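During the second year of the project, the team shifted from modelling isolated chains to modelling whole assemblies. The rationale, set out in the original proposal, was that interfaces cannot be judged from single-chain predictions alone. As a representative example for this report, we include one of the complexes processed in the last quarter. Its constituent sequences, exactly as entered into the pipeline, are reproduced here:
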Amino acid sequence: MDSKTPKGPIEAKWNTYKNTINLVSPANKRKLDVIVVGTGLAGGAASATLAELGYNVKAFCFQDSPRRAHSIAAEGGINAAKNYQGDGDSIYRLFYDTVKGGDYRSREENVYRLSEVSTNIIDQCVAQGVPFARDYGGLLDNRSFGGVLVSRTFYAKGQTGQQLLLGAYSAMNRQIARGKIKMYNRHEMLDVVLVEGKARGIIARNLVSGEIEKHSAHAVVLATGGYGNVFYLSTNAMGSNVTASWKAHKKGAFFANPCFTQIHPTCIPVSGDYQSKLTLMSESLRNDGRIWVPKKTEDAKALRKGSLKPIDIPEEERDYYLERRYPAFGNLVPRDVASRAAKERCDAGFGVNKTGEAVFLDFASAIERYGKEQALLKGESQANKKRVKKLGTEVVRKKYGNLFQMYEKIVDENPYETPMMIYPAVHYTMGGVWVDYNLMTTIPGLYVTGEANFSDHGANRLGASALMQGLADGYFVLPYTIGDYLAKDISTGKIPNDSPAFLEAEKKVVNKINLLINNKGSLPADYFHKKLGKIMWNKCGMSRNKKNLQDAIKEIGSLRKMFWKEVLVPGQSNEFNEELAKAGRVADFLELGELFAKDALHREESCGGHFREEHQTKEGEALRKNEFQYVAAWEYKGEPKEAVLHKEDLVYKNIKVKERSYK
Ligand SMILES: Cc1cc2nc3c(=O)[nH]c(=O)nc-3n(C[C@H](O)[C@H](O)[C@H](O)COP(=O)(O)OP(=O)(O)OC[C@H]3O[C@@H](n4cnc5c(N)ncnc54)[C@H](O)[C@@H]3O)c2cc1C
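Output from the structure prediction step:
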């Protein structure tokens, strides 16, 4: 595998690369076709830009419109190293934070490039009319996200993804109207077609008519999002799936870090067995919300029983554990750190809801702080408590109103009056299809962008950097790098879609669909998906150990066998059939799940949102590495072990810290 990262100092690589790659002339771009599967932020941005450059684009999505891609759900914001706040930000700091936040497991060259182009993204989106929040003077406003000490997150209330997607979609629409993008809504890609080892097209199913279609092109781009739904319950859109990436993998594209999953700390806790979706409360809430549990287990027990209310617990009896453990970052530590700390507190008996799996996110201090400020601004220095609360509530409502409303609708509690209850949940997958510096997979001509690839976030993605990556890939990276490859195809001519490779791929897809339809089992696809999700969460989730992972591999294998015996897909293949689409996606999750568990088994380390329980052993020692991580050495069953652990694991796993400098 060759990452093809350019030589030279990191800050010069991208420029040197752009100055030396092959270019395709405008006249030749018109001769080249590119398929883009996925029209979320990554794919929408890529389609619009490639078409603007002159390539002929065919874009595919399974929703009825690109506007409904999962990207629309993004709430909190998008990072960029603009340093508008003058608080010390820079391209280097964004790069450094992202690499450190990812537990040093991202490809640094890609991250540096990402930080460099981050500033262009904001200009591009403002030019498109994206209504970013502005401050009193009319300038673009910023807030802060986890794992950083600056405010570099641009936002549009709690709907940043939606507004950015509308920007990308309008850019696409211009090209659709010009005939440069042919849009295939409600089409699901079911295979990549390789001709002489190169990606030359896809097989797609028209989800409305059921027709199987063959589409050819000179290159194929997958921008098909993440696979967090392998856990069944996640904050992802219900339709998010792994099918496109998985089919590419089965055709030879390598997968990287499949087990790196982001478990987001601020989600509404699971309420019961009949739930099919989890809801994120945006990380932006940690700018003002304070996370706590009671100091005494008796209080936690009383909260769980319902005999005590959170507002009745006095200040001195509350444990603001993130502020206590990480005074520099406080509640805005990186997501993996916050998630692991929440789990640690709940496992230790301090959970605050009925199931014992929730901590508080409390806005009372923020409401009081903003209220006092407003009272002073209004000349009401004598304002009483009630008035201060009212004024403060208004400020909080303006900042986070839609998120508070969402919480109240789901939980039926008023978060302005009582703290929210939150718990970690599956949110994002850092793992994905392996790509080189050009975003090309190990299959020539097959590119993967956005959440579907693995490259930029290591073991943990920092908040507000997925939107940044998707748009960087789509608007500013792929349009350059793909040209380098396509320059060799200017004389190739149209790629026929009736070659043996296309016919064979089509046949395989049809056979698989027939297998599902004709199976006539007794259990719906959802039954297997839910079972898989339970295995994944219980055995491959936040805490992992060798035995559980080995069991998971066996259990997933048996579940997959049972699926192919027992799955029931009603209806026919030549019609609109959502159950058929779902069954196909679950079949792929059942294969990915096993690879995921195998990767987790091999990875004898704690990093990102995951910790290996084997670390829960005898006392060891830890050498300080940085604010969040330690290199720990200990003994396990008589054998010496060493790994990078998070600070809270050391406490949890009974490893003693010796303050020594780390080299
Ligand atoms: C609730 C929530 C809030 C978030 N908030 C933020 C935030 O504030 N900031 C941030 O940076 N990140 C945030 N994220 C993460 C971010 O939204 C995603 O990582 C990002 O939007 C992914 O974009 P994408 O373009 O890669 O994929 P997606 O938006 O998931 O788009 C995937 C596209 O691929 C298509 N597709 C998939 N499979 C197929 C197939 N087989 N055939 C045809 N088409 C297919 C879909 O139709 C869709 O068009 C959030 C995530 C969630 C869940």
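The first strand starts at residue 33 and ends at 37. The longest helix spans residues 385-411.
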